[in-house]
Amino acid sequence: LLAHKSAIVTGSTSGIGLGIARAFAAQGADVMLNGLGQADEIEFTRAELQREYGVKVRFHGADMRRPDQIRDMAALAATAFGQVDIVVNNAGIQHVAPVEAFPQERWDAVLAINLTAAFVLVQAVVPGMKARRFGRILNVASAHGLTASPFKSAYVAAKHGLVGLTRCVAVELAEFGITANTLCPGYVKTPLVERQIADQARAHGIAPEAVVRDVMLVHQARKEFVRVEELAALAVFLASDAASSMTATAIPMDGGWTQH
Ligand code: NAD
Question: Does the keyword Oxidoreductase apply (predicted)?
Fold first, then answer.
């Protein structure tokens, strides 16, 4: 579905981003990986994807708190692949604390990585997309882009902001063949969520098993974590020609959490 396309997927050394990068490569797209991690493990993943799917796979370690590095990554992708057709703003971090005790430094980091980085990358790739009259912008927000939970002030603010940014660029760029959509997953069992189980247990003063049952999946009617592969399939569809008229949406994939 994505032959002759190229994509940048931020935060693709782990979890949802890696699943989306893999699915794009499997559909024939060249992919720029990005994220933090051990250099040898990242190189292993990069080489494995390239070998398995026969596409170009590159890596750029841009720190999403650094606009200059984000712009450098976009420039490298354009050089390596000839163009950038698809961007997935997926990198994200979480911090869980009561609002009155929320460290300002953590607020700034959550906003920078989960929201400002997306703005910077969109700004960098849009001129090329406009010139070619094709582009796909996929922003990974969260159910927390549509609703709130306690102790996540920065994350909920950033993800609501990302939904807003997506809607704005969607209407601004619609006539140029560029779509922009937000994916709003419920809980997915990735390293980000594994770390949160312990943090949430502390914040709520309950046991880790109770966090999964009574906090994370309490509103998720299906009572199961969303799978990375389901989100990756949605991303492939949104990036494909079949989704040309689908823009400015914020799509929940949350086992019946936000829409009931
Ligand atoms: P993860 O922790 O497994 O992966 C996060 C990725 O972001 C990693 O590749 C990491 O290296 C990268 N990253 C973090 N800080 C970075 C920085 N400063 N610069 C560059 N890269 C950085 O998390 P995940 O669960 O796969 O989350 C991916 C996205 O999905 C996030 O935006 C998250 O908010 C969102 N999300 C996750 C869930 C869930 O339940 N896991 C639910 C809804 C939304």
Answer: yes
Which residue's entry shows tokens 């063949």?
177
Tens place of pLDDT for every residue, the chain, 260 residues?
Answer: 999 999 999 999 999 999 999 999 999 999 999 999 999 999 999 999 999 999 999 999 999 999 999 999 999 999 999 999 999 999 999 999 999 999 999 999 999 999 999 999 999 999 999 999 999 999 999 999 999 999 999 999 999 999 999 999 999 999 999 999 999 999 999 988 888 898 889 988 999 989 998 888 999 999 999 999 999 999 999 999 999 999 999 999 999 999 99
Q: Are 25 and 52 in contact (CB under 8 A)?
A: yes
> The tokens of 88 are what?
């997935």
Cα–Cα nearest to 190, from 214, 161, 221, 216? 216
pTM: 0.97
Question: Looking at the domain that runs over 6-186+227-253, which CATH code has it been given?
Answer: 3.40.50.720
Q: Is 155 among the catalytic positions?
A: yes
Would the CB of 63 count as within 6 Å of ligand 1? yes
